[in-house]
Amino acid sequence: MQIISAISLWFIPVLIGFILVYSVIKKVPAYETFVEGGKEGIKMAVSIIPFLVGMMVAISVFRASGALDYLMNFLKPILEMVGIPVEVAPLAIIRPISGNAALGMTSDLIAEHGPDSFIGILASTIQGSTDTTFYVLTVYFGAVGIKKMGDALKVGLLADLAGFAAAITIVTLMFGSK
């Protein structure tokens, strides 16, 4: 345990020192390069604001309109038939769209069902085994001007589906079903 504490204490200072020594060896002006990177970071942050606002508005409208509840009521018989708890289905739908909304749903599920419950463990596992595919594509691809993202979308959503299925399978095998 002391080794891990020492590594975590010294990792950042050693990394910074390495970067500075490397920049001297390569004759790269470290401070000026750092400042230029900071300028580019600020420009990037400003350029993604419209994408973020659009995504957050769309998610809020989807949830507030009752469309999510309607969809869950429609899917409930199918989900129950295949053994997927209805409570986590909204998380599986929202997770590829927004990490913050998914984290809020996970927190709500844990608060309602408990952290050691099947639903709590499953929600946490889904949260950790899937990604915010639409967010990544919208923000990062949009920021660098990539317009054709169809293949990346397919692969990302397929990976999310695989993560969701793996989470359900593994949590069910390890902890039993609801």
Walkthrough of the structure:
The chain is mainly α and 178 residues long. Helix content is 82%, strand content 0%. The chain is built from 8 helices and no strands.
Count the helices. How many?
8
Strand content: under 5%
The level of helicity is: over 70%
Mean pLDDT value: 87
SSE string, helices as H and strands as E: HHHHHHHH
Backbone CA Rg: 21 Å
What's the number of extended β-strand segments? 0
Sketch the major β-sheet.
none
Poorly predicted regions: none
Head-to-tail CA distance between termini: 36 Å
Overall 3D form: extended
Structural class: mainly alpha
In short:
The protein is an all-alpha fold.
Jot down its keywords.
82% helix; 8 helices; 0% strand; 178 residues; extended; mainly alpha
Topology record:
Blueprint: H1 2-25, H2 30-64, H3 67-82, H4 89-94, H5 99-113, H6 118-129, H7 133-144, H8 150-175
